[in-house]
UniProtKB/TrEMBL annotation:
One of its GO terms (molecular function) is oxidoreductase activity. InterPro entries: ADH-like_C, ADH-like_N, ADH_Zn_CS, ER, GroES-like_sf, NAD(P)-bd_dom_sf, Zn_alcohol_dh. CDD domains: Zn_ADH7. This is Zinc-binding alcohol dehydrogenase family protein. The lineage of its organism: Bacteria, Bacillati, Bacillota, Clostridia, Christensenellales.
């Protein structure tokens, strides 16, 4: 079967590998229909994802149709079109026991720590499957995962009706977080340096966009918040400096959500956190958000047509990656068809 394989850092092959087999009673075989390319897939390819192991079949944003089931799975599953949550957790550690399996101490993510969904077939546990109640196109199955990241960010930032929110950066994760925040009634300001990306943010419901190459962000934040500072900040740029800036731009009692895997320390004084009593939280993967995302998509609360910008056949993944890396201004979420 056709598979996107990273045998070692900096090498990407469209390989012909044997079809995987069900080995556990609770597993199902999914014929993959669509996948989404994520920044972290590119980091695995370039050898800059500290969590990945090689060789690796990449892809953690994917969905398809169930073709075979293990002995403990109802045969009614066969033929179901499913989005697959890529997180596999132990169920035993502290985080798992309090329901936060997305930060399980022995966490494995399909496409990162174990083989993922960029192949014609993949075997996954049944409990990772989510279905829509109505017919949706194949691409939608692959968009549930990135939206689940946006849901998790909103939950971690406790974003609700009337909240003023700053999202730093306007890549695909920002667009997901933005659309979810808007659906919750928040007023959102979004930054970037690329005008086309800011246009997409506007179309996705941003109340104010700031090109930080041309405008002073601090001034814009103060205007947007009547001089108070920002109540909620989501840093999707994940640079040393943007985290520091987020702490400065927060209002007293503000909340900051970080999602980066940047290992370089930011210089943040304790006094800045204490004086404003800031809440700084990490947000990683997602925790049982797939159902919420599907509900929101079915209710028409999100705009997936603005999230997805390009689609390529999986065999052309190299062209898709060139598009992402050479024309970032044109690209949001790029999906693959299998
Ligand atoms: Zn992703
Ligand atoms: Zn665990």
């Amino acid at each position: 079967m056709l598979t996107v394989l990273i045998p070692e850092p900096k090498k990407l092959e469209v390989a012909d590998l044997p079809k995987p087999q069900i080995t556990q009673p609770d597993e199902v075989l999914v014929r993959v229909l669509a996948g989404g390319i994520c920044g972290s897939d590119l980091h695995i390819y370039h050898g800059t994802n500290p969590l990945a192991t090689y060789p690796r079949v990449i892809g953690h944003e994917f969905g398809g149709v169930v073709e075979e089931v293990g002995s403990a799975v109802s045969p009614e599953r066969i033929g179901q079109r499913v989005a697959v949550d890529p997180v596999v957790a132990c169920g035993q550690c502290y985080a798992c026991k309090i329901g936060r399996h997305n930060v399980c101490s022995t966490l494995e993510v399909m496409g990162v720590h174990r083989d993922g969904g960029f192949g014609e077939y993949v075997v996954v546990p049944e409990k990772n499957l989510y279905t829509f109640s109505k017919e949706v196109d194949d691409t939608m199955l692959a968009l549930v995962e990135p939206y689940s990241i946006g849901m998790q960010i909103n939950a971690r930032g406790q974003i609700g009706q009337g909240d003023k929110v700053l999202i730093m950066g306007s890549g695909p994760i920002s667009i997901c977080a933005l659309q979810v925040a808007v659906s919750r009634g928040a007023q959102v300001m979004v930054t970037d340096v690329l005008p086309q990306r800011l246009e997409r943010a506007k179309a996705s419901g941003a109340a104010r966009v700031v090109n930080v190459k041309e405008e002073d962000l601090e001034k814009a934040v103060m205007e947007f918040t009547d001089g108070e500072g920002m109540p909620v900040i989501i840093d999707t740029v994940c640079a040393v400096g943007t985290f520091e800036q987020a702490v400065r731009l927060s209002c007293p009692a503000g909340r900051i959500v970080v999602i980066g895997l940047n290992a370089n320390p930011s210089a943040i004084a304790q006094s800045e956190i204490t004086k404003k009593e800031l809440t700084i939280v990490g947000s990683r993967l997602s925790r049982a958000r797939f159902g919420e995302v599907i509900e929101a998509l079915e209710a028409g609360k999100l705009k997936p047509e603005l999230l997805r910008s390009h689609t390529y056949p999986a065999a052309d993944i190299k062209r898709a990656i060139e598009q992402i890396e050479n024309h970032p201004e044109e690209v949001c979420k790029v999906t693959l068809t299998f």
